[in-house]
Amino acid sequence: MIAIRSILFNAAFYLNLIGRMVVLSPVFFLSSHRKAWRVPKDWAMSNHWLMDKIVGTTFEIEGLENIPAGAYIFAPKHQSFWDAYALLPWLDDPVYILKRELRWIPLFGQYITKMNMVPVNRGAKGKVMTAVMERTKQEMRKGRQLIIYPEGTRRPPGAAPDYKYGIARLYRDLDVPVVPVVMHPGLFWPRRKFLRFPGHFKVRILPAIPAGIDPDVFMKRLIDEMESASDALLVETIRANPQLPLREDAKRRMAELTAR
Predict the structure, then answer these.
(1) Which parts of the chain register pLDDT below 50?
(2) Among 11, 17, 26, which Cα is nearest to 105's?
(3) Are 258 and 217 in contact, with CB atoms under 8 Å apart?
(4) Short-list 153, 169, 161, CA closest to 216
(5) Where, by residue number, does the polypeptide cross the bilayer (predicted)?
(6) Are 57 and 151 in contact (CB under 8 A)?
(7) Which H helix or E strand runs over 57?
(8) Class of domain 58-93+143-258 as given by CATH
(9) Residue 200, Cβ density class (10 Å: 0-12 exposed, 13-18 middle, ≥19 buried)
């Protein structure tokens, strides 16, 4: 039954994506930047509805009061494709630093260009990266929210942390608060797997780390606060969903945490 529901959800997910992108393109491209956000945000909300009705997976968000006004860095755990889009409806005007090749995808590339995302050649250095940073600063001056995954890429639930120092450099150069976010959608939507599992999980938004702290001190604080909150939420999520099949990283970490 899980396999059948997963196939149905995946089909509905991509049909929903392509259908909305095509049908709503006139609305999207003829709208102002602010009003155009309604299209991807409504798409995200429709995916939550599909996952609830087809798979039986629901979530809740804790800590929305911790989101400051204006510009900040939004720093979530990254475990699944789910968290790449899921929280867009709760952010005012988010911006991503994206690899430039995404702009070459038909229609999708025009979508991200319309929303003023910041393209980057990941192999570039020196003047190119200076230009990327300046472009990012320009967007942040508009009061936007930069979404950065502190570990850089998707990590399975329970995996050993692998934070990249790049977020500390952005924190220093942009001089804005950082909002850490922990969650475990990877237990329900595993990376590189087509199966989707039913259950309920929480997204926990932690208090913002204020701007102006020494980057090294900030980095240690970010890791300590995120990992402590992530461990607590991992135990809570697994105990609340005993039906979940756990991968080795989650089993190992759960055993370590519950043995203390």
Answers:
(1) none
(2) 17
(3) no
(4) 169
(5) 12-31
(6) no
(7) strand 57-62
(8) alpha beta
(9) middle
With 0-12 CB in 10 A as exposed, 13-18 as middle and 19+ as buried, what is 205? buried
**Closest Cα partner for 133 from 101, 175, 93, 104?**
175
Q: How far is CA 160 from the centre of its chain?
A: 19
pLDDT in tens, 103-135: 888 888 899 999 999 888 766 665 667 888 889
Q: Which of 163, 160, 141 is nearest to 150 (CA)?
A: 163
Among 59, 35, 86, 19, residue whose Cα is nearest residue 198: 59
Element (H, E) at 178: strand 178-183
Residue (of 136, 137, 166, 139) closest to 150 by Cα position: 166
- Counting runs of H as helices and runs of E as strands, what totals does the chain give? 10, 7
First to last CA, the chain: 37
Distance separating alpha carbons of residues 150 and 166, to the nearest angstrom = 8
What integer pLDDT is reported at residue 126 of this predicted model? Answer: 58
Helical ranges in the chain per DSSP H? 2-23, 25-30, 33-36, 38-50, 82-85, 108-114, 127-140, 166-174, 215-240, 248-258
Domain residue ranges in the chain: 1-55, 58-93+143-258
Residues paired with residue 76 on neighbouring β-strands, in sequence order: 181
Distance, CA of 184 to CA of 189 (rounded, Å) = 9
pTM confidence score: 0.93
